[in-house]
């Protein structure tokens, strides 16, 4: 054991992380005590220390910390700083260099910490006790587990599965130099009215009240209230360019001032209430009471301001020239107009250069058009009790207005909006009511902002309720609420901006308050751009920002500014202006550089990964139509999310409640207080975007508590489909069922009432619905471990105004029709599938799989007959088969999914053990069997599973499995092999072919997918009677032998028999092939050979049989043959293939006399080298027919000998019994020809059996590559010949042929081989041993 050199004490809880910084001179640590601490290596003798501020630390430039610790004992680590700020445990800390805009010494360490409060915090320990920047927020989760800093980029990772990137320089500088203070100038003196036309209403009322009786002044007079400056209007604007660089201030004393942010100077525009003339009546002077000012707005050009009053007047004031004594003598007049009897003016805003929108406090909005003089173009009355606060105009005549009571009104102005020319004076404008009103969108809170998404036509509104609402106009022109999304970290939203990214996509940026802090964040990723302490959200404020169009991918607003009005005790007012660190420089840059134009474009690549949910996902399901698919998920964070998937769905199943051939689906969510929400998912748009709209809610008649909750809900469409109604069933925590019928058409009712069926009293955990035999079967599972069957009507009779369960065509049940005990403890999940082996319309079999806390997998098969054949018309199972698989997991199972596809049944299970397990389900007439195939680890405790069939770009169809828990994982399973297996499962004969293209080091597919592929092949083998095995060099690659593709470079040279005629090369030629022979002898055949032998000879394939050959050689009657290009002779080592192998290239384990290489077709080969060879050759019959079997001992002697290996009969060189390139040796060819003729005879017999007697042939091709394609071509020729014979049979043959190609790289089967039999060919990308072993597992 190594004793510690130092022990640092100080933390009050468990230490979660430590990190060295500055070459070991500092140590940063974090702990459960919510603190971040910094330790410094300092000398015990303070004279050797270097002073930084008030701290003493070790100078790392003198020696490294490692050298100090090893060579000296005069230094130690001491606690120098403790940082408090995190509100929960701190998990990680990282060192960073000081940013350039940080004024502290750049040599001082900067720390970034991350904790359980979902924030990262930036510290400068030796220069400040507090954080030097606002906390970094952006994750939508509970904890940030890790943080790191690299080249000025802060990287944080949280349990939402996302990585966020922050610019350290922008963040560390965001808290410095962000506030300037400006004192607002004094108001101009009130003018004296010489005509005494103005009447003070307050004094008149006081005099009248005192005329009645004298009042004794015994009461003590109140202290006179200090009259301060009253400001009613404040708005930032741009005088030049595109960036707001000025701020307009309007006061109730008539003052109108402008603050220039660049020069920090005020401009006085005199009194806005003086020298006012009416826009009509020949510019008659009018008197405006300045104390009636209520709002102000600035023209887009920055040259004019509009001031609204409580009396209904709107005054247009010129602000492009400042007030001075020189201009006072000129007749500068302010123009005023109004629209009696509408008043007071709540706010004014310019829509464009010639249009102004005035919002009145009494619920009216007027659009003024500036032609020759201002005149009303539209008068809109909301008809609500709220005050209009916000608006949005879509440019096509649609105006949307939000008020202070949470309502949104829509006005169609398209008929008169185009009237932009002509004199509007004298034109009587009709008061217009809303075409549609959406009541209480934000409850009863203010609607503070509205924007329109141009790409989808969806409207977005924000309010003081802290929610962002989506709504749209339906086909009837009425407003329809879609979604209400609570925005985390903001309690009151004030602004919503629709900005465009460089790729053209629209994004939303939100602004609002969290406490008294103003927060600006990206809605999509939750990224917090900035946070400003305002001192109070009720203070008058104005905010603006802009991004740079040409900027880095990590974006921070280059310019932002927020003006906050603060009143002082002496009656004066001040402006606190918070701005970006480089505000002035950015304004100069934007004003001088054309390449750095300000725009509303911004990049959002600061987030890696997409956050799904902040907490555990409770349920998930696939939602799909013919073009797009989505994944719907619900979580403990009280949110439901819809995730778009790019692949195309091909499954015939439908999500929650989707009608066949429909682009709409019913989405149902449930939760506390026995509540359910119903949404319609409309996918009719040609784009990938779908529309989710709220239909209605389900509430019980009696008030439910928060603990009384809906645990599960399912839905299915009702017949007839054209009525677009859905049956919804949910189970609650008291064991009761809730039934309701929901229509896809939105109604005026916001709630629907269903029927409650009293249950067993045990909480219902899960349920599933199944439509069969005209009924809807509900299987309900409880915490008692029992499953009950309920029967409900499957069709609807009529639809009345309110809908309801009374419209169902049948009687609602009061008790279950069947029950059984599936588990000892509570059931966590169940899944259903239909097993129709007999394809009967009057009879159906249902598979019920369930998992629970007892770690068991329960599988039950129920056979039903048509209700018309049953007593009382009920669906009662007439046959039951059940199996309980105990200890199916090491811990409790939480989710199960059973899939029935082409009669291959499989089950997926997952639970607390963080594993997903694949099971094979076999169904016999009397019982069911479940076998575990494979198990794969997960990164989460799976709480739900759902499957979907997806079509990939290569044409393959894969089963995609979504496993959800504390995150989401997707896995896939290839289904092309399942469909091929279904066609071949009932065949009688199997032909297995193997090729030579499989290399030992090729990559393998995933375990589960390969398991599935191999399972199909094993099913083929079990059902076939004839087997032909085409094996190439790749078949032996897994034994350690090289393929042609990986053979040495000299291999091709040494495969030419002419090398043996060259005296200098004869010895090298023999030694080369003797080495090959030695490697073949020393290599043990891989397990795949043994498996093939067990399948064919060991009885594993029970349906193999010998063909009826009559008087032919019975050796040909073997049920399997091998057609191989391998020369290793491994197949002959096994009994099944010892006499039924056609080795088309011979065997390297045999050597024979080379006397025949000089002849071709019994004629001498031409050439001087061949003439000399044949002249010296004296051969005998023994030389032609004798082969030498090489043994291990004989090979060693030959390899150690310096002599040439000679024939014992003619004493000429020996050669391997292998067919080489340009080889005409009749002795080698004779042996191969005999094997080929026997194989071709067997092949012809089998092809006739397939065509005439309905037999089935499977060709199992193993490792056949494209470099030496002889075996590969043979497999395809046999496949096509059999297919042609089947097709051309005069009476129609019932036989079939299947080609299975196992190859790690070249498994594709050409289109011309597919032909009309695309389902009869299967490709498996795998090596030989792995592929055959996986097949054997099934």
Q: Would you mind describing this structure in some detail?
A:
It contains 19 helices and 84 strands. It is mainly β. Strand 18 and strand 19 form a beta hairpin.
Q: Percent helix among the residues? A: 10-25%
Total strand segments:
84
Give the overall average pLDDT: 78
Question: What's the alpha carbon Rg, rounded to whole Å?
Answer: 43 Å
Contiguous low-pLDDT stretches (5 residues minimum) are 47-61, 194-217, 323-330, 419-424, 550-554, 592-604, 647-656, 997-1026
Keywords:
single chain, 6-stranded parallel sheet, 19 helices, mainly beta, 6-stranded mixed sheet
Provide a short characterization of the protein structure.
The chain is mainly beta. A hairpin with an 8-residue loop joins β63 and β64. α11 runs antiparallel to α15 and α16 runs parallel beside α17.
Question: What layout of secondary structure does this protein have?
Answer:
Layout: E1 15-21, E2 26-31, E3 35-43, E4 50-52, E5 55-57, H1 65-71, E6 75-84, E7 90-96, E8 110-115, E9 120-123, E10 144-150, E11 153-158, E12 163-167, H2 168-172, E13 179-183, H3 201-209, E14 231-237, E15 246-251, E16 255-260, E17 265-271, E18 276-278, E19 285-286, E20 293-298, E21 304-309, E22 314-318, H4 325-328, E23 334-337, E24 345-352, E25 355-360, E26 364-370, E27 374-381, E28 388-393, E29 398-403, E30 408-412, H5 414-417, E31 431-432, E32 436-438, E33 447-452, E34 459-463, E35 467-473, E36 479-486, E37 492-500, E38 506-514, E39 517-522, E40 528-533, E41 541-548, E42 559-567, E43 573-579, H6 583-592, E44 598-599, E45 607-608, E46 617-624, E47 629-635, E48 640-645, E49 648-649, E50 657-658, E51 664-670, E52 676-682, E53 691-698, E54 710-717, E55 725-732, E56 737-743, E57 751-752, E58 755-757, E59 764-772, E60 775-782, E61 786-793, E62 818-821, E63 827-834, E64 843-852, E65 857-865, E66 879-885, E67 893-901, E68 904-911, E69 915-923, E70 928-937, E71 944-951, E72 957-965, E73 967-974, H7 976-984, ...
Parallel strand pairs: 18-23, 27-31, 53-57, 74-75, 74-82, 75-76, 82-83, 83-84
Antiparallel strand pairs: 1-2, 2-3, 3-6, 4-5, 7-8, 8-9, 10-11, 11-12, 12-45, 13-43, 14-15, 15-16, 16-17, 18-19, 20-21, 21-22, 22-23, 24-25, 25-26, 26-27, 28-29, 29-30, 30-32, 33-34, 34-35, 35-36, 37-38, 38-39, 39-40, 41-42, 41-44, 42-43, 46-47, 47-48, 49-71, 50-51, 51-52, 52-53, 54-55, 55-56, ...
Helix pairs in contact: 7-8, 8-19, 11-15, 12-19, 16-17
């Amino acid at each position: 054991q190594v004793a510690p050199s130092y022990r640092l004490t100080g933390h009050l809880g468990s230490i979660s992380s430590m990190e060295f910084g500055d070459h070991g001179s500092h140590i940063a640590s974090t702990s459960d005590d919510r603190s971040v601490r910094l330790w410094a290596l300092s000398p015990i003798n303070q004279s050797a220390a270097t002073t930084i501020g008030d701290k003493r630390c070790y100078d790392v430039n003198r020696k490294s910390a490692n050298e100090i610790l090893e060579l000296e004992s005069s230094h130690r680590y001491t606690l120098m700083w403790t940082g408090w700020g995190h509100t929960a445990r701190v998990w990680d800390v990282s060192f960073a260099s000081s940013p350039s805009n940080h004024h502290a010494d750049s040599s001082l360490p900067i720390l970034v910490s991350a904790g359980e409060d979902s924030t990262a915090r930036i510290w400068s320990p030796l220069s400040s006790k507090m954080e030097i920047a606002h906390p970094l927020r952006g994750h939508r989760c509970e904890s940030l587990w890790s943080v790191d800093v690299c080249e000025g980029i802060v990287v944080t990772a949280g349990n939402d599965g996302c990585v966020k990137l922050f610019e350290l320089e922008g963040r560390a500088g965001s808290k410095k130099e962000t506030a300037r203070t400006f004192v607002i100038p004094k108001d101009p003196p009130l003018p004296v009215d010489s005509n005494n036309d103005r009447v003070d209403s307050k004094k008149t009322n006081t005099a009248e009240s005192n005329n009645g009786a004298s009042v004794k002044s015994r009461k003590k007079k109140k202290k006179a209230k200090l009259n301060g400056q009253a400001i009613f209007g404040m708005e930032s604007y741009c005088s030049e360019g595109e960036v707001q660089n000025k701020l307009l201030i309007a006061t109730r004393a008539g003052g109108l001032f402008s603050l220039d942010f660049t020069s920090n100077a005020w401009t006085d525009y005199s009194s806005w209430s003086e020298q006012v003339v009416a826009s009509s009546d020949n510019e008659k002077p009018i008197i405006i009471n300045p104390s009636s000012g209520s709002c102000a707005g600035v023209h887009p050009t920055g040259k004019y301001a509009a001031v609204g009053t409580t009396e209904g007047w709107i005054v247009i004031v010129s602000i492009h020239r400042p007030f001075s004594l020189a201009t006072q003598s000129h007749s500068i007049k302010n123009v005023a107009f109004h629209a009696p009897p509408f008043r007071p003016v709540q706010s004014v805003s310019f829509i464009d250069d010639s249009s102004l929108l005035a919002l009145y406090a009494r619920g009216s909005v007027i659009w003024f058009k500036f032609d020759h003089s201002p005149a009303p173009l539209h008068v809109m009355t909301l008809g609500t009790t709220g005050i209009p606060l916000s608006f949005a105009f879509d440019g096509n005549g649609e105006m949307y207005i939000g008020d202070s009571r949470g309502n949104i009104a829509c006005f169609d102005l398209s008929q008169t909006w185009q009237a932009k020319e002509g004199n509007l004076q004298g034109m009587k404008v009709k008061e217009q009511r809303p075409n549609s009103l959406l009541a209480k969108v934000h409850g009863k809170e203010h609607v503070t902002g509205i924007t329109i998404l141009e790409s989808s036509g969806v409207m977005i509104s924000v309010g003081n309720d802290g929610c962002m609402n989506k709504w749209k106009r339906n086909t009837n022109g009425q407003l329809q609420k879609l979604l209400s999304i609570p925005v985390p970290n903001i309690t009151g939203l004030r602004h919503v901006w629709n900005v465009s990214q460089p790729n053209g996509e629209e994004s939303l940026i939100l602004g609002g308050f969290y406490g008294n802090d103003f927060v600006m964040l990206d809605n999509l990723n939750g990224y917090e751009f900035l946070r400003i302490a305002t001192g109070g959200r009720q203070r008058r404020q104005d905010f603006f920002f802009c991004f740079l169009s040409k900027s880095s991918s990590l974006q921070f607003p280059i310019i932002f500014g927020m003006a906050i009005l603060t009143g002082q005790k002496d009656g004066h007012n001040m402006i606190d202006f918070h701005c970006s660190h480089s505000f002035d420089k950015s304004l100069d840059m934007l004003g001088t550089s054309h390449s750095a134009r300000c725009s509303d474009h911004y990049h959002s690549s600061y987030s890696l990964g997409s956050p799904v949910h902040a907490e555990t996902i409770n349920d998930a399901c696939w939602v799909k139509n013919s073009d797009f698919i989505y994944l719907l998920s619900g979580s403990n964070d009280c949110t439901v999310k819809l995730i778009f998937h790019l692949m195309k769905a091909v499954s015939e199943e439908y999500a929650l409640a989707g009608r066949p051939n429909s682009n709409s689906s019913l989405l149902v969510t449930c939760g506390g207080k026995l509540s359910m929400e119903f949404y319609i998912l409309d996918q009719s748009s040609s784009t990938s975007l779908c529309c989710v709209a709220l239909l209605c809610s389900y509430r019980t008649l009696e008030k439910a508590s928060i603990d009384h909750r809906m645990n599960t809900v399912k839905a299915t469409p009702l017949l007839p489909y054209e009525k677009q109604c859905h049956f919804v069933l949910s189970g609650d925590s008291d064991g009761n069922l809730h039934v309701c019928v929901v229509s896809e058409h939105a109604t005026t009712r916001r709630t629907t009432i269903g029927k409650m069926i009293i249950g067993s009293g045990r909480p219902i955990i899960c349920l599933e619905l199944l439509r069969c035999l005209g009924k809807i079967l509900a299987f309900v599972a409880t915490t008692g471990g029992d499953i009950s069957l309920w029967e409900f009507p499957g069709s609807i009779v009529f639809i009345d105004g309110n809908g309801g369960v009374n419209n169902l065509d049948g009687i609602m049940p009061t008790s279950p029709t069947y029950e059984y005990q599936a588990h000892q403890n509570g059931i966590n999940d169940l899944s259903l599938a239909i097993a129709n082996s007999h394809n009967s319309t009057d009879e159906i079999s249902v598979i019920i799989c369930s998992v629970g806390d007892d770690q068991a997998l329960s599988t039950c098969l129920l056979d039903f007959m048509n209700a018309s054949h049953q007593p009382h018309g009920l669906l009662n199972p007439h046959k039951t088969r059940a199996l309980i698989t105990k200890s199916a997991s090491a811990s409790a199972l939480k989710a199960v999914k059973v899939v029935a596809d082409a009669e291959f049944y499989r089950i997926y299970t997952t639970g607390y053990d963080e594993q997903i397990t694949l099971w094979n389900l076999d169904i016999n007439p009397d019982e069911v069997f479940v076998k575990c195939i494979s198990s794969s680890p997960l990164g989460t405790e799976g709480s739900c599973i759902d499957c979907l069939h997806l079509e990939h770009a290569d044409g393959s169809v894969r089963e995609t499995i979504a496993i959800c828990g504390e995150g989401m994982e997707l896995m896939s399973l290839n289904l092309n092999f399942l469909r091929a297996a279904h066609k071949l499962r009932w065949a009688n004969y199997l032909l297995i072919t193997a090729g030579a293209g499989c290399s030992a080091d090729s990559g393998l597919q995933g375990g589960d997918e390969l398991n599935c592929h191999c399972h199909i092949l094993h099913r083929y083998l079990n059902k076939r009677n004839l087997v032909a095995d085409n094996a190439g060099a790749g078949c032996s690659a897994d034994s350690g032998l090289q393929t042609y593709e990986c053979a040495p470079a000299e291999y091709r040279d040494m495969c030419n028999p002419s090398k043996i005629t060259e005296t200098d090369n004869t010895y090298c030629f023999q030694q080369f092939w003797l080495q090959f022979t030695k490697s073949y002898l020393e290599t043990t055949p891989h397990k795949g050979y043994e498996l093939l032998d067990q399948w064919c000879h060991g009885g594993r394939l029970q349906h193999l049989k010998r063909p009826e050959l009559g008087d032919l050689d019975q050796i040909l009657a073997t049920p399997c043959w091998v057609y191989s290009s391998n020369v290793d002779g491994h197949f002959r080592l096994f009994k099944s293939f010892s006499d039924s192998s056609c080795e088309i290239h011979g065997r390297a384990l045999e050597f024979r006399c080379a006397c025949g290489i000089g002849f071709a077709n019994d004629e001498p080969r031409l050439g001087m080298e061949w003439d000399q060879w044949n002249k010296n050759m004296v051969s005998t019959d023994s030389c032609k027919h004798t082969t030498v079997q090489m043994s291990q001992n004989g090979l060693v002697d030959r390899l150690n000998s310096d002599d040439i290996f000679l024939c014992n009969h003619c004493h000429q060189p020996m050669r391997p019994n292998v067919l080489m390139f340009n080889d005409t040796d009749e002795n080698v060819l004779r042996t191969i020809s005999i094997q080929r003729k026997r194989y071709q005879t067997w092949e012809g017999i089998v092809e006739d059996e397939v065509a005439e007697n309905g037999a089935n042939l499977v060709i199992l091709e193993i490792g056949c590559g494209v470099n030496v394609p002889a075996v590969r071509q043979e497999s395809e020729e046999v496949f096509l010949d059999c297919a042609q014979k089947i097709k051309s049979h005069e009476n129609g043959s019932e036989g079939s042929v299947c080609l299975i190609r196992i190859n790690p790289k070249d498994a594709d089967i050409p289109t011309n081989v597919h032909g009309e039999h695309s389902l009869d060919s299967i490709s498996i990308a795998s090596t030989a041993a792995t592929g055959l072993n996986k097949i054997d597992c099934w």
